[in-house]
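Worked example

This section walks through a single chain of length 491. The input is the sequence exactly as stored; nothing has been trimmed or padded.
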Amino acid sequence: MLDSVPTSPTIRGMYIGGAWTPAARTFDDLNPSDNSLYARIPDGSAADMARAVEAAQAAFPDWSRRSFQERARALLKVAEVWEARKDDFIAAVMHEGGGWYGKGVFEAGFVAEIFRTSASLCYQATGEVLPSADGKVLMATRWPLGVVGVISPWNMPGILTSRGYAAALAAGNTVVLKPSEDTPYSGGLYHAEILEEAGIPAGVFNVVTCSRASVAEVGDALIEHPLVKGISFTGSTAVGRHIAAKCGAHLKKCCVELGGKDSMIVLEDADLDKAAEAANFGCFMHQGQVCMSTEKLLVHDSVYQSFMQRFLARAARLKTGHVNDRNNVVGPLINTRQAHRVKALIDDAVAKGAVLELGGNAWENFVEPTVLTHVDDSMDIWHDETFGPVVAVRSFRTDDEAVALNNDTEYGLTAAVWTADEGRALGLAARLETGMVHVNDQNIYDEPQVPFGGVKASGVGRYGGRWSLDAFTELRLITLERGGRHYPPVF
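Given that input, the structure is written out below as tokens.
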């Protein structure tokens, strides 16, 4: 049971070439609920990263040549081990990442399905037979890239890490993972423990951890290494731009899933009770620290008061505090720096005329659920991704106005539309500048087998299902000439 799981893990080192490898120094990994020491983590270097890449390259020929059935069985075994140890992961999500218990349970279950879905990809890495004007047999075939670098975030260290490498392994690539310095265990070393226990061959999966002070050096060493053929990154748009630019300079494939400033649109014929319930989840689940979190509530003027009554009543019931108390659905932000940033966005909005309908208080790493109205585009919070338990509310009168308010952002990840008229919702979905639109649901939604990603500053590429194969394979044209091709007589 979870109550018997240690709150601090045993750290054996980085995981390179199938061996647990110490670093020259360590850094402190803190529990954000109370800033106590969670673990001391190896602070890897560029040289450590180079060794990991070389180990992955050495393992690539054997792994890529294994049959698709063998790789599928290996990933199914990973899913089995993951499920057997799910309580360990839930504890790590709570005490290293500040996640609510329920969030950890959901994430643990989702990750097992990522591995199973990725196992199915081993049977789907198919190409196409194309028509030929010259009577050739033309085959567009898929081949693994080689070594894939994965840089994962802290907010969903199970889902967003495994999503970055499981499909890559299925396609025959080998992997070097650099997890976030805020969740180096649950987003990195824990994954190495699971894959080692599942029997993944040495060098196929490697993990190099590092501190915030070392992250630029170590991250660049991964991206720029000539043996690394592709990069998978999930994180902030600012860092994503840097990574995508470096990948472009080195002519490497990259799949980057970045930030969001996501809206929920509530039309006048919406089921307000269900919309309020969904909004409460979408705005405040995991303290709003999800790229898909509902950060803007756009409510039709005719139902604005009725909706707000329902929404505020629900939000006011959410309790904030240390995740050791499972009644505290809203835990800490990931660190003090982020808590200060979110509070500064709230204070800026209030100073410029926004009204605090709920919350606004912050202490240590905690920010209570906060609802702001009378928000306009002069306020930083209208434009900046908050990544905290804060939502800005605006009313609108027409569908055109709702579309304009949704699209008034550099981001384009998800949108949600609430209405009884599905035809109207589909018409709006066609005009919303986002990679995903959810009708009569909140913004935080994904399944392992569907395409996940955004447009504009929310990223490039798609994760999920067969769409992951585009990120982690190359197309190779193979032709068969069977004697029908004639060349000019002069040759």
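What to look for: The chain has 15 helices and 22 strands.
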